[in-house]
């Protein structure tokens, strides 16, 4: 593989990793799942302490219990959700996203695999630097293998219930709940604010690139 | 590009993205830097709010000021650092890592580019889910383009000084400081605990894969 091939393929996989909330019930082969989780543990963690763990949930009753917890929080959120997002998406896009989010809340347990990503340590903002990079590696690797995913955190509002359900020790925190499955939709770029709007040079607010300029 | 090529290349890039603390002073072309940051913004964020920003620091005086802040925290940490890590690395590995970490503290400003990744919102554990995935995308994309990086957070202990230096508003938090540059070392897998040790099935502590088993 040439360097050019490596960079083209990797950037393509990253660019087209979008949230896949509708997935087939088809199971994920063991070696595919292992490749996805092997990608997770290649991420960095604070002082390389790797206090992470990943619970693969396949038991139908446990998946259903997780879905009930997830949906109870998600539906509270839907009532209060913002009607627009900062990339300027209009009502049509928001309606589609909300529909997809409701679908997920109702059908989370139908994904063949749910991953609960965990981390131990002092539960503060910086601790996220030791688990969310692993979660992102997992999702990009999944996409590269044709498997859809979406990063969710709603369950954290009822984390005590989740920890009881999965026998998670008191000093271990859940960071994300990620359903995995073969997607019904197509891979493609998600809607984002342009890079020119969010990249600054040497100080906050000073644009590095003019809007629409290419490099 | 076939699906097989896409997955092979992406998994290879993820597996070989290790912390590169020693980099050449050679500048990074604008289009390469833009591709790296374009990868960052493809990551998910809570409710797709994208309240992130990325400050590209190239000014030598500002880089030097960041290095002084970084080193002041890093050296305090080195005094108190654990002598082993949980993957069982022995004294030899730890000596090499510590040497590399000290090199970075002393030479952070010599990297051609420092990125300060920022996020606004309630500064808690879950907020990390809206910025550290973007940071990881950035580092994997950089590796795919031949650019080395390392995720650091030491500066957060003196975040007020960093915010003053870079004119960062009060409601914006810095999540990571990432030096970028062409590495002097080779790409390769970093040392990690085996995936079998950290992946469980249906409940915490129940191994999914036996140690050494292949998928």
Question: Quick recap of the structure?
Answer:
Chain A is 40% helix and 13% strand.
Question: How would you portray this structure in words?
Answer:
2 copies of one chain form a homodimer. In chain A, helix 2 packs antiparallel against helix 5 (132-144) and helix 3 (60-80) runs antiparallel to helix 4 (91-107). Chain A has 7 helices and 5 strands, in the order H-H-E-H-H-E-H-E-H-E-H-E. Chain A has helices spanning 3-15, 30-40, 60-80, 91-107, 132-144, 159-165, 195-198; strands at 52-57, 113-120, 148-149, 172-181, 199-201. Chain A has a single domain (17-185), classed as NADH Oxidase. The first copy, chain A, has a 4-stranded antiparallel beta sheet, with helices on both faces. The longest helix of chain A has 21 residues, at 60-80. Chain A has 215 residues and is an alpha+beta fold. Chain A is globular and about 50 Å long. The interface between A and B is large, with 103 and 103 residues.
Domains of chain A, number: 1
* Rg for CA atoms of chain A: 18 Å
Flag low-confidence runs of chain A: none
* Quaternary organization: homodimer
Could you outline the blueprint of secondary structure elements for this entry?
Two copies of one chain form a homodimer.
Chain A lengths: L2 H13 L14 H11 L11 E6 L2 H21 L10 H17 L5 E8 L11 H13 L3 E2 L9 H7 L6 E10 L13 H4 E3 L14
Antiparallel strand pairs in A: 1-2, 2-4, 3-4
């Amino acid at each position: 593989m040439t360097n050019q091939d490596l960079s083209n393929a990797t950037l393509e996989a990253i660019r087209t990793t979008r949230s896949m909330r509708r997935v087939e019930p088809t199971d994920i082969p063991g070696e595919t799942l292992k490749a996805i989780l092997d990608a997770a543990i290649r991420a960095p963690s604070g002082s390389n302490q790797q206090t992470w763990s990943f619970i693969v949930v396949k038991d139908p009753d446990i998946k259903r219990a997780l879905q009930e917890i997830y949906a109870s929080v998600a539906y509270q959120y839907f009532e209060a959700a913002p009607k627009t997002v900062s990339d300027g998406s209009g009502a049509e896009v928001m309606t589609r996203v909300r529909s997809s989010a409701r679908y997920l809340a109702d059908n989370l347990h139908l994904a063949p695999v749910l991953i609960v990503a965990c981390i131990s340590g002092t539960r503060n903002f910086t601790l996220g630097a030791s688990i969310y990079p692993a979660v992102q590696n997992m999702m990009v690797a999944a996409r590269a293998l044709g498997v859809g995913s979406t990063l969710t955190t709603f369950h954290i509002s009822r984390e005590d219930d989740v920890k009881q359900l999965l026998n998670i020790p008191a000093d271990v925190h859940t960071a994300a709940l990620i359903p995995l499955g073969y997607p019904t939709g197509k891979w493609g770029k998600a809607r984002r604010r342009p890079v020119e709007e969010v990249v600054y040079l040497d100080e906050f607010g000073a644009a590095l690139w003019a809007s629409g300029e290419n490099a």
